[in-house]
Amino acid sequence: MSQPSTVAIVGSGPIGSAYARTILEADPDARVVMFEAGPQLTAVPGESVRNIADPDEKARAREMSQGPQAGAFRESLGLPAGVAVEGMFTARQGTHLLDFGGEGSAHAPTFPAAAAATNVGGQGAHWTCAIPRPAFSEKVEFIDDAEWDELISTAEQLLHAQSAAFADSAIGTAIRSLLDDEFGAELPPGYGVGTLPVAGDPQPDGSMVWAGANTVLGPLIEAGTPESERFELRDLTLVRRIEHEGGHATGVTIEDLRTKETSFFPADVVVVAADAFRSPQLLWASGIRPRALGRYLTEHHVVITTVALDEDRMSALISDDEFEAELARRAQNAADPVAAVNRIPFSEPDHPLSLQVMYAEKPPFQLDPSHPAAGNRWGYVNMGYGVRKHPRVEDGVTFDDDELDYRGFPNMTIEYALTDAEQPELDEARARIQRAGNALGTFVAEPRLLPNGSSLHYMGTMRMGPADDGTSVADPWSRVWGFENLVVGGNALIPTANTMNPTLMSVAIAVRGARRVVEALAGSRVEEVVPGR
Ligand code: FAD
Asked: pTM for the full model?
């Protein structure tokens, strides 16, 4: 009988989870141990904190995810006691800035909003759950279309995709109608104004249970399933190093952050899905340093604004009764402010941008009560155009062996710049958001370009490529060049310039990588039982 194979996964976000699920469902002889540096936040591992109804509990879960900025949890997450963290401030709730301004902080003056989440479920416990499909040149050109479509569909199933969330919202329908009047004639068929696909499960009251890593893990965290018996998740366990010899990963060195004990964990395959900055940092710290590691950093830039919906235009499209009924239904679930999500997707050549429009009853910031749009009965939309960044070798993260960060890893410096290549599309986004705002109502915040790093969608730093020519870190099956059994996952693999939320695409890439891991494990067992082969 062959020995069970052990797969070590670094990181418990949606991507590590997609590897775990795909491998365990396809290979009854595999066992997966997942290591997560952060704490478990919810009774069900990896659940979205947006589903927590109690505001205090929700705030605590977010606080616990904030790594070096996590108050009472700071010490257990690696920041030594007594270290003053000057100028410290918290990024988007549940995340922590990489350049937090204290001792051991990364250096990212040109990418200041770069942030991460350190908790079971990763950023996937805090995400907005928008999962548009990549289109046109956003896709990976060396994966053929038929396979790509199947991978994306599988990723959609893993994430519980809803293509028509809130489709029954009369307010959402009215917003789409106004946007369609403004832009519809300019957009190609199939790429017009529509609902934004999201990840989660619609509830009978019209609200959503948002998807997290728990959704992706599925049967792995359900008691009594065969997969759950072969799956183990260890929280507060930091992977310090990938051990390897002659192009073969042998396992990982782990530190139990509760006891501070360090040990070696042997594995047949190592999967690193520890986000777009900390994954390349771990490879670097382990002496695995392909030329493209950390380079070609991209994100999609965001031009955003908030608009108060116009009473006359909205009431021409919705009856008062419909409107009141929708408000009453929503009042049953006051914990979740997002109520209708619409979009105009990316299309080429004429609309290389994507617009996302989120309706909410209240503005996302405190609006001066004397502002004419304060307390707008018809509510508000927060909307943003995503603008692509063209990959350049100059943009990226470097690691310094002589300066350690707060976790004791070679410290990061991020260098990044927008160039003339992006300016025309940024200008186009500014012009279009003005039109969209005028079509919907009155601006309550001027359109503005967010600081670099604000998208939280960091790509390219471990990009996949068709050839080992120094411009990629991984092969088309996400294996680090030169290694058969070291696999990388996450948005960092995405080699293209794009405007969409990347998690769906990264899950699709992970499914492809995981299937190849399963094939390789099966192959290695055949070699075991046929001596001499
Ligand atoms: P992560 O989810 O970041 O998980 C990586 C995990 O690895 C972390 O938990 C980290 O603690 C752990 N780790 C790091 N280093 C180590 C180590 N050495 N040892 C052990 N563990 C380690 N994406 C979308 O597509 N749509 C959206 O609408 C969207 N909205 C977002 C909104 C917010 C507020 C945030 C924060 C993110 C959003 N994202 C969105 C991004 C999305 O959450 C990420 O794309 C996704 O979580 C990436 O998954 P991942 O598994 O690669 O990494």
From this structure: 0.96
